[in-house]
## 1
Amino acid sequence: MTKPTLSAGVVVVRRVDGTYRYLLLRAHQYWDFPKGLVEPDEDPLAAAVREVEEETTLTGLDFRWGHDFRETEPYGKNKVARYYVAESRTGDVMLPVSLELGHPEHDEFRWLVHAPARALLVPRVQTILDWAQGVVGDS
């Protein structure tokens, strides 16, 4: 079997009124965290940070919980998505036009607490959200 294609992304969180909210992006009817393909010879963490900036304009992420990650089971055409967890000090998300596509990659974004976020995600991504909540806690 061939090696899976690796995507890398970040579960971006921010604290609002003492509770962590998770940034979800919607493309068509599918919700996920910011992520994209790791380029040849690119470090997956660097790819994850690049993808967050390209898809949301967020910069200056704080990887305060370290660089641990979780990966999804293979899906689609033998893809695996690797996610890290980082905090954003701002919620100022923009969905810029992709030069490749001629329109934004995503149709909508939301900052949601765990339960409403989980309700929008497919099981493969729910597992990542649950892991991330265990990383950040909710204190």
Note: Strands lie at 5-16, 19-27, 30-32, 35-37, 70-71, 79-87, 108-112.
## 2
Amino acid sequence: MPTHSGNEPEDHKPEEVDTSAGYERKDIRISGVVVFITAMFVFVVVVAVVCFGVGKVLNARMNKEDGPNSKWTKTVDVRQLGNLPSSPQLQNKMAELTQDFPTPRLQTDDGNQDIADLHAREDILLGNYSWVDRSKGKVRIPIERAMELLAQRGLPVATAVDKAPLMVGDSNPTVTEPLTNGFARTGYEQEETQRADSGRAEARK
């Protein structure tokens, strides 16, 4: 059974601390701080070099797979836009950038503006005179004028054809006038028209 004698080595004796001064008498070791800062600096440099190398390798691999740049893979510097709010200037800048990409392009909204633009082009064609074929003298006339001429001259009458007698259960087809002309403005266009009318009314005031 081991026993402990009172004669212990001097290196195992607790160090006596002088607390009479009320503060620590020993200073911090400068060498430890220097070693820590140096190790941290080396670690940061190594990590930066590794990340840079990995980025280079990944970019080289992607460029190899994608092939050389063409006019359809133009790199756009979006920093030119800055932190602009949603405004006509920003929309015009985005329109300039998107012109570099082929159609069909992704729509920036739900398609309401595209439909409104289509109807605007149709209104221009339906409400104005324009050339169809200048060499042959063919002119497109406004739809209102076309309706007036049609009412004056009437529709061309087809030649009569011999009709076979109706079979049992058949009847002559009847044509009813449609309730609409097949064209209606979208809600988006109606809202834009209301905004324009209200703006003109306020301007008159």
Note: The chain has five helices and two strands.
## 3
Amino acid sequence: MRKKAKREDIRDLILDAVNKLLAKFGYKKMTVEDVAREVGIGKGTIYLHFPSKQELALAHIDRVVDRVLVDLREKAGAPAPADTRIRRMLVSRVLMRFDSVVDYSHNLSDLLSSVRAALLARRKAYFEKEAALFEGVLREGARDGVLDCIDPRTASFVLIEATNSLLPFTLSAQELGRREEVEAQAGRVADLLVKGLLACPSRPVSWTR
């Protein structure tokens, strides 16, 4: 039974429908009419919020990233040592994206190939926001003597880049694997990265810039 869009969260209802239809049909077969029908509104209402089908798909991805940022912000502010928080954040940024496309199957490749150019233009902004959260934890860890990080800003982007290869928006659907495999691989990468940041007891901790 389709939802009736009579609430203020019409934008989220539209994006919920986009997520469902992308998983079911893929980007090329999904139409704006399909989205309107799924939500229970007129096609014109869709265009009041999103100017095109491509913007619907990109807004869906934006929402996934926004949820990742909320989660990273919570983990960054958690009462735990800096190295523990960094590890949790690294694994989470991979798994949350994996979970967002777990039902897409072969339709993930269809989506990515269709919006690739526009998505690449957005990725820099995505990663800069994530890196800022990592940078804050790195600076705190260096001040506390837990981490040896002379340049937290650069290090934060290294952390992002090192785990980007595990993201579903980088891999094909066939390369995604099972969730437990992705989690284990993300954990191994995170462990190596965090180990390289830990302060060595035999030498003084470098002060951050």
Note: Confidence is low (pLDDT under 50) at residues 1-7, 202-209.
## 4
Amino acid sequence: MKKITALLIFLLSCSAALCAQDTSQGQSAPKKADLTQAVTPLRVQVVFTEFDGEKKIASLPYTFLVNADERRTRPNSQVRNGARIPVAIDKDKISYIDLGTSIDCSAMQQDDGRFKLTMNFERSSISETFAGWAKQDGPSAPAIHQFRAEINPVLKDGQTTEGIATTDPLTGHVYRVSVTLNVVK
């Protein structure tokens, strides 16, 4: 019984000494406000526009929310829109390919009040100009038009920029991507 009492007294004195040491060094537990960073909600609009010469063929807008937040290491907004298309591999086999639009976006607020966006785009579609071009003895295989890009525009509230303008080498069509940023109030 004396040993148990002595052990309890020893443990209590050790824990009291540790508590006294922590407060004597002036260290306190981090406050919740210190652990979080201010987050600014943004509305981002991305518009993919396709031109054949001067004629606008298509305009595809995508609007989504993203938070300006430096703590993230991966995109905090992702948009996936499209379809899985069956493609015949041979007479008895079918595989599926993904077609459509993918957008990944993250944002960081800059010291001057602007926002740096990190954006990855991918658009794929069946090329009508070359549909079925790979037809041999078996089933025809569609030609897939694919566009990928990464941009990092720095925009202020209400600003729009044309981030990409590129020409399809097969059709001559011009593809433009514009980005608009608005702070959500």
Note: Confidence is low (pLDDT under 50) at residues 27-35.
